[in-house]
């Protein structure tokens, strides 16, 4: 299977001219081939099923990986591609059904990226001696004499953009952008030796910050830490709910946690914080899949909080080089692997096994980043027709 894209689709300079083409990954089985929107993927024989493709750079020196994904209720897919061996660069892909040539926008001098709730990319970096945050047509800059370039960025629907940057005086500063204005730079009251590992904007204002040394998660708001929790392991990622309006608790957040017994590079616990209450669910390390109960030894890589009581997870089995998609019931703590969701990812040499995922609000389409490519978990022929129309 081949995905054909014109060379005019994307041009940029990475030490010269870089062209991006797309080719079939060859790791997904299928019967017939269907082409739409410039993509050619194997149409599954039965549903649910996984199908997908991988990007292929013309230059063998380039190594990319999908680092963030977001799928909205119109099945518009936003993706951030990080160039793992081209420092301080990233690309943004926005694809929607019916688009023949989805745009890919290159960014340079990049220090941090994030996807906004509206599926736009937010980019932090340095330009002409100033620190810069770019969001769509908007750009905010501040002096490099106060902070260095942002290292983390996050955004919420109604609370603006938050960035965390190293202070030139030592420690860390929080930069807040609200109503299209850079409104504040505030010092972050962390202890000496405490390292930031993840951030997420809080629903009702403020910022969730996960740290190591010690392993904690704190809620920063108005210059102080208003909530603080000690954790039994290191936070790998923070997850906010898709739809906060359906949640009764204020400022909910979920953390994927790696305890000392976790498989390397994966999480083995899910921590939910809601209404000043912390709950920890330990994930199974050994799974039995299908009617034949095939062993699957895996830890969690990424998550999407799709409903008040359900979390989707990507699971990584390094021994089998396989990824599975699981659903965790947050009320019972029970997790199950979705039927026919296991696939072999395409990872470049020494590429980190990180598999971000996103689900449509209807839950009938799940997209997983698999190294330098995408995998699509499609639940029905109707979903295939709708997405590939």
What brief labels describe this structure?
six-stranded antiparallel beta sheet, disordered N terminus, 53% strand, mainly beta, four-stranded antiparallel beta sheet, 34 strands, 389 residues
Characterization of this structure:
- The protein has 389 residues and is mainly β.
- The protein has a domain at 44-65 and 242-388.
- The chain is built from one helix and 34 strands.
- It has one helix at 381-387; strands at 11-13, 17-23, 32-36, 39-43, 49-57, 64-71, 77-83, 89-95, 104-108, 110-115, 121-127, 130-135, 138-143, 152-156, 160-166, 172-178, 181-188, 195-201, 207-212, 216-221, 224-230, 234-239, 253-258, 269-274, 277-282, 286-289, 294-297, 299-307, 310-317, 322-329, 335-337, 357-359, 365-369, 373-378.
- It has a six-stranded antiparallel β-sheet.
- A hairpin with a 5-residue loop joins strand 10 and strand 11.
Topology:
Layout: E1 11-13, E2 17-23, E3 32-36, E4 39-43, E5 49-57, E6 64-71, E7 77-83, E8 89-95, E9 104-108, E10 110-115, E11 121-127, E12 130-135, E13 138-143, E14 152-156, E15 160-166, E16 172-178, E17 181-188, E18 195-201, E19 207-212, E20 216-221, E21 224-230, E22 234-239, E23 253-258, E24 269-274, E25 277-282, E26 286-289, E27 294-297, E28 299-307, E29 310-317, E30 322-329, E31 335-337, E32 357-359, E33 365-369, E34 373-378, H1 381-387
Antiparallel strand pairs: 1-2, 2-5, 3-4, 5-34, 6-7, 7-8, 8-9, 10-11, 11-12, 12-13, 14-15, 15-16, 16-17, 18-19, 19-20, 20-21, 22-23, 23-24, 24-25, 26-27, 28-29, 29-30, 30-31, 32-33, 33-34
